[in-house]
Amino acid sequence: MRFFYTFFSGVNRLLNSFLMLFGFRWFQNRWGVVYDSVSKQPLDPVQIKLIDASSGKVAQSSVTDLSGRYGFLATPGKFKIFVSKTNYAFPSKSIRCDSDGIYKNLYGGQLFELLGESDVISFNIPMDPLRVDWNQQAKQSLIKTSAFSENLALKTTSILFWAVFIFALASLYFSPSNFVYGILVFYCLVLFLAMVLPKPRLWGRVMDGKTKQPLVGVIVELTHTKFPDVVVAKGITLDQGKFFLRAHRGEYLIKITSENEFGQKSLLKSKKIKIGGGGYYSRDIMI
Amino acid sequence: MLYMPKFNKKALIVEDDEQLRGVMVSKLGEVYEVLQAGDGEEAVERIIDKIPDVILLDLLLPKLDGFKVLDRLRSYPDKKIASIPVVVLSNLWSDKDILQAKSLKVEEYFVKAHTDLNDVVLRLKKILEAA
């Protein structure tokens, strides 16, 4: 059963990557990025707070990484997000639509509701620059970001995709051939996949290996393999044992730890894992 | 740049982002005297002038980066200054950066994006209590 799940989730990830080649699902459903509304560069460090709208309290808080990324795994409810960074203003007054080049699913300070079951909240959030920020200029030599070229690539692939489609339709009318039929079948397949393929899940789960029950409230940490005391990602399992860990591609040590009411921690499991280009770990871990 | 002292232990917060620095200052400032620096040169001046008991250091800093601050600190002739414990809070997290910081004897290395700031405060308080 576990083998089939791993196999199908792997195929799903692969097909989603395939769709991205044609301009579908570009950067969707991975993580949120807080970015400069003018330069389109990701911002860090940005303090980002998930506010529970019913109580007005901070449900979770985080700081964006060098690539401006963040993500909150939250249980269903009504929320608001508040972000703050020196020299930047939120909400953006210059970007008021739902899409901004490569950045889709934008957030501008509105109330939103997470329905169904717990999931990852990962809006892209524009902020308006107020003055020159030293940190943003300095890190340009460290982090290679290319929002404009990525946007150009996205538009180019989309235009090519639809141009070839229109050309194939015209060819079907003027000079039909098996090659043209083949191209149209390929297009039907891509469009069908874009409509029905589920988005890859971003969260993993911690389960009891014997009872198959989810383990809620355990700490999941990713640490450097060379420096095990340096935590590079951390989360706590919610309902259904779900956790959300994001990290750059690489090999890490994952540690599952439980904590009792007196604050004493005990290590439940530790193993080496690899994180791919997707930048998140979404496997099930059996204890 | 100086918070009202409440106890005789001093912490220096070195962070170029004013808002993040303000959060750390407010979390520590209730119990300890907190000094602030927004760039590397200012940090070195504060260290020599005030001799803090612990330093929270960002690595990406204007004028003088955190590695150079650490280097100057560890090679300072006065051993009291050279041995001040340092906790790093940075978004740099490559093997190279961590190795370089560890070679300059930092007490702890926290990655900003994956750290609960309260954990950082707890670590600083532990160091200050032991100082």
From TrEMBL, chain B:
Biological process per Gene Ontology, one example term: phosphorelay signal transduction system
Residue numbers carrying 4-aspartylphosphate: 58
Database matches in SMART domains: REC
Coiled-coil spans in chain: none
Domain Response regulatory: start-end pairs: 10-128
UniProt keyword terms in alphabetical order: Phosphoprotein
InterPro entries according to UniProt: Bact_response_regulator, CheY-like_superfamily, Sig_transdc_resp-reg_receiver
Gene3D superfamilies tied to this protein: 3.40.50.2300
Record flagged with keyword Calcium: no
Protein name stated in the entry: Response regulator
